[in-house]
Known about the structure:
This protein is mainly β. It has a domain at 248-343. 11% of the residues lie in helices and 32% in strands. It has 6 helices and 25 strands. The strands form 7 sheets. A 5-stranded antiparallel sheet has the order 2-11-12-13-14, with no helix packed on it. Mean pLDDT is 87; it is low at 1-24, 340-351 and 356-370.
Amino acid sequence: MGRILVIGVFLALAATGCGGGDGPGLGEASPPPELGAGWKTDFSTRSVSFDEFMSGGPGKDGIPAIDDPRFVLVEDADFLEDREPVIELVVGGDARAYPIQILIWHEIVNAVVGGVPVAVTFCPLCNTAIAFDRRVDEQTLDFGTTGNLRNSDLVMYDRQTESWWQQFGGEALVGELTGASLEQLPSRIVAWADFRREHAGGRVLSPETGFSRPYGQNPYVGYDSVDSSPIFPTRNADDERLPPKERVAFIERGDDAVVVPFSTLREKKVVRVEVGGSKLLVRWRPGVASSLDDAEIAAGRDEGAVEVREGGRLVSFDQPFWFVVAAFRPDARIVGEEEAARSSSSPSSGQLAPSGQESWPRRGYLAPNA
Length: 370
């Protein structure tokens, strides 16, 4: 493992216009040099102002995606502790586990699961773990990191057109594919012990990535302190309906969006919600370590695991920090105590069903020597 070096300097949080809109106009025709240098992107086509983006520290591919992932059988994965969080993705009966201890250093894995080209993504600044189908129309895209942020969230790019994509929501914002959306696939964060038990024949992303990184260590120690603000500026930062880093189950169906706070789920275990006409069951259980708490991910405090189901079937959702939802979907409804109380009247074990530091490191600022 390479030693950790501080390779950047703090970016001013008051970057002009970042995280805010600029009215109906789209601002300058080209991005500022710190955002646009070295790109082949069609910057004349975009749906948001360049003022909404800011550099997160590293440049293009400064946080390297994994493009040739290796997987090992569950029985051969001896590098994970029971409580460690992994992203579970099952496509066509093909079950894969993507350890957060690896994703926290790479943020994107391009792979094929069950015959479907997928991008499994994780933005540690937002706690957003989202899996996408990489196909748009009849084209299969490969994704990397731009090094830029919007509302503190990862901005990806596809290598085919170099269009810029927002991870939260999966929409292309800049470039040839502006307006296109990626299909989100049902996935969830679970404890390694649970994945191992439910998917004995599954496979796990190997730490043999071709990169030298201290997998298992958390470079964002203490970042998820619930009352702390995000490092980078975000829209609607004054929305105090929930603490900034309260984890929530976020469910979006068309124009309708709902959040269920983890604090409510810890108390009620099960909450029933209706979103966009769909009746859904949101369930929580303990046993999953936070990846953004302790220096060793496996030692993080227990944040638990969440799943969302419709008619017994796992559906797509996300579990970001509240500030992310406040920035991107401020109209989202928050499940209140009254609704949660009605939901908890149904008996439940709370078990998930099988799926079928004062100054935190800035994103990308801490990177090991290669």
